[in-house]
Amino acid sequence: MTRIVKLFVFVLMSGAAAAGTDIAAAQTSSSTATVAAPVAENPVAHVRDARSWEYGPFVNWGTGVGDRSDFKFLWAGFQLAKPLTPVLHAGVFSGQFEFGGNIMPLWQAYTPAPHYAQYTCIVSGTPTPCTLPVAGGTYRGVSLTPVIFRWNFLTKSRRVQPWFQGAGGLIYTTRQFPPSYSSAPNFSVDGSTSVWNFSPQGGVGIHYFTRDRRSIDLAVNAVHISSASLGDRNPGVNASIQVQVGYTFWK
Asked: What is the DSSP annotation of 4-30?
């Protein structure tokens, strides 16, 4: 009987120990599920807390403004960026600093066709009205924006991450841009501007997360294009408005 009682007590204790192990495992599993749930349910917080790399393609469509309103632009490329800081608290401006860059193998500007325009020429020291040829048409090139400073605002949204940015880039075109007047009869001569231009810019945008680590992006940028007088003339494009649509992967 003593052996039977001891065996019975042993079985009970073993059962209790097994039950305790199961309960602990269940609690651990529940705790893991509690931790994992926000990852799936709050993709904005997930990439923000992880300081995830972001990369993906984008396309821009834009138009000049003011005296360049007849200029149109089509750009496409690839962007890479990474948050460098944790969330910095500054009231309504609380957020996270991010650094990035992009490259645009497709850079096109559509300008009025070659034409004649009225200018004021200096003849023997006297201003005189004159008619000169102005180049135009489609300009093609590539662009690199190695410096993008972006501020991601702290948000309670689980899907939308707003931001604003400032950036600076470099553009190379196969012909001197923008088109200018020339004393040569050949309209393909663009009038001593430059094939190299700079593109300081700034804008605002949002990431809309379709699921964890994936977002559709929408932005609006104001871009200035100028050669900084690398050519004899620097008419530039004082302002253009660019609408950008992209898709971002987060890692």
From this structure: HHHHHHHHHHHHHHHHHHHHHHHHHHH
> How far is residue 207's CA from residue 246's CA, in Å, rounded to a whole number?
9
- Which pTM was predicted? 0.79
> Along the 251 residues of the chain, how does pLDDT read in single tens digits?
444 444 434 433 444 444 344 434 444 444 444 444 445 689 999 999 999 999 999 999 999 999 999 999 999 999 999 999 999 999 999 999 999 999 999 999 999 999 888 888 877 788 888 888 888 999 999 999 999 999 999 999 999 999 999 999 999 999 999 998 876 666 666 668 999 999 999 999 999 999 999 999 999 999 999 999 898 888 999 999 999 999 999 99
Cis ω before 114 (30° cut-off from 0): no
